[in-house]
Amino acid sequence: MPLGTSTSKPVRDQKARTKPNAKAQDAIKLLMADHATVEDLFKKFEKAKNDEDAGKDAIVKKICDELSVHAQIEEEIFYPATREVLEDEDEEMVDEAEVEHAGIKSLVEQLKEMAPDDELYDAKVKVLSEYVKHHVKEEETEYFPEVKKTEIDLEALGGRDGRRFRALCSRHSARASRHR
Ligand SMILES: [Fe+2]
Ligand SMILES: [Fe+2]
C-alpha cells in the first residue's frame, strides 16, 4: 500500500498553518543589500561632488542615515549573535569590526553637523567612503564566510525570529521619510 494515503494528512495540515506573511530573510543577504545601497550612494556623491545644485547634502544625509542604522543592526543583533557561534580566534574579526565602526560613526557624526561648503566636507565624505569600502570588504570576504560555516540560522536571525532586525529597519525608514 503506498504512503501518503489519508493517514499522513495531519503533517501537511500542520505545515500549512505556519504564518503565511512571515517571510524569513537571510541576515547576511540583508546586510549585503545595505552595503550595495551605500556603495551606490557614494558613487552618486562622486558624480554630484562638483555640482552645487546636485543636492549632495541630501545624498550625504542619506549615507549617514543608512550607515547609522546598519551599524546599529550589526552591533545590536548580528555581531553578538555571531560571536556566540564563531571560533575563539575568529572573534578577533568581530572586535576589529567594532573598532572600525567607531571610526565610521565618528565621521558620520562630524558630517551630520557640517554643510557642503564647509572646509574638509568633501574630504571627510571621501575618507568615510574609503573606511566603509575597507570595512565592507572585510565583512564580505572574511567575516560573513566564517559565519556561513557555522550552524547559525541566518533566516531566523534576519526574519521571523529576528524581529528586532526588521524593527530597526522600519523605524529607520519611518524616521527617514519624516525628514524628507
Ligand atoms: Fe559593519
Ligand atoms: Fe556591514
Would you kindly provide a written description of the structure presented here, covering whatever features stand out?
There is one protein chain. The chain is mainly alpha-helical. The protein is about 75% helix and about 0% strand. The chain has one domain. The protein contains seven helices and no strands. Helix 2 runs antiparallel to helix 3 (about 55-85), helix 3 packs antiparallel against helix 7 and helix 4 packs antiparallel against helix 5 (about 120-150). The termini are far apart. Mean pLDDT is about 85; it is low at about 1-20. Bound molecules: fe (ii) ion (2 copies). One fe (ii) ion binds next to helix 4 and helix 5.
Percent of sequence in beta strands: under 5%
Rounded mean pLDDT is 84
- Shape estimate: globular
Give me the oligomer status: single chain
Give me the secondary-structure category. Answer: mainly alpha
Question: What summary fits the major beta sheet?
Answer: none
Number of domains: 1
Bound molecules: fe (ii) ion
Separation of the first and last Cα atoms: 65 Å
Low-confidence stretches: 1-18
Helix count equals: 7
User: Considering DSSP H and I runs of 4 or more, what fraction of the residues is helical?
Assistant: over 70%
How are helices and strands ordered from N to C? HHHHHHH
Strand elements, count: 0
Instruction: Output the radius of gyration.
Output: 21 Å
